[in-house]
Known about the structure:
The structure holds two protein chains of two kinds.
Chain A: H1 11-48, H2 53-75, H3 84-107
Chain B: H1 21-51, H2 63-66, H3 69-94, H4 98-130, H5 138-167, H6 178-208
Amino acid sequence: MANEELNSGNPKVDIEYRRRKSAEEMRYQVVSFAMMIFLTFVAFIAVGYDISGWFTIPFILVLAIVQVGFQLYYFMHMSHKGHEAPALFLYSGVFVAFITLLAFMTIIWW
Amino acid sequence: MKADEKFTYETWPAAPEKQTLDGKNKFLGFWLFLGGETVLFATLFATYLALKDRVPNSDHYLAKDLFEIPLVFVMTMLLLTSSLTSVYAMYHMKNFNFKKMQLWLGITVLLGLAFLGLEVYEFNHYVHEYHHTFTSSAFGTAFYTLVGFHGGHVAFGLAWIITLMVRNAKRGLDLYTAPKFYVASLYWHFIDVVWVFIFTVVYLMGMVG
């Protein structure tokens, strides 16, 4: 993607290519933003309409996870090359986070 | 390539944040930090979920009595938009346009300040209208710790971005400053990632009951 090393030996061609690549990437970013706004709207509307909690809670959690995916892969460029180590760090964090949440929600009771 | 080498639009590399060893290390180290931050916030979320609505007696307000959709919605839109404006800032950074980058970072800071202002108003409202304080109940403690920690991250992020903007106002973009701006923008996006879970888990799920 736009982030790769480019060297065709002709600086003018490279600049033109990069300009086009980064304009294309910007388009993806704007589409991601539109999707994130849309998902946020759906989540707020779902809660505003007061449907059963058994449906609403899993539904808005899925919307949140999808939205965070957009944020990580497009806004934070995790879809670009060279993000293997960041993915390892982040998903290790998510793994521990999952266990922590599971433990607190099942072991602690009153 | 030297860190203080002067560049033009034509010679500016495609991935300036990772051209130097310093930049590569910052990039890697910062993502490791974000992995740790994920765990940190998970513990706060887990505590909140375990202690949600745990109050000593029925005089205390619960999540569904406190939260209001419009305020949370506006705060969400502000922070989400500030995430896009910092994307714009990094777009101009990659195009070696320092002035436009500074402009979009400035807009990001303003949106962040508006968010923080609303959060201060919100907390103040809960404390004075509902007597929902840090020490009033386990629910209060868990709520203010989680949401307040996020607010603290917003405040820190604002201070960080403002400092970078002021300190490098004259220096402009080179391979020494580019990774600094890039990493700060990653931090800002991460703040939005955490907020997505806060507005879903704390506010929306709180209103569902």
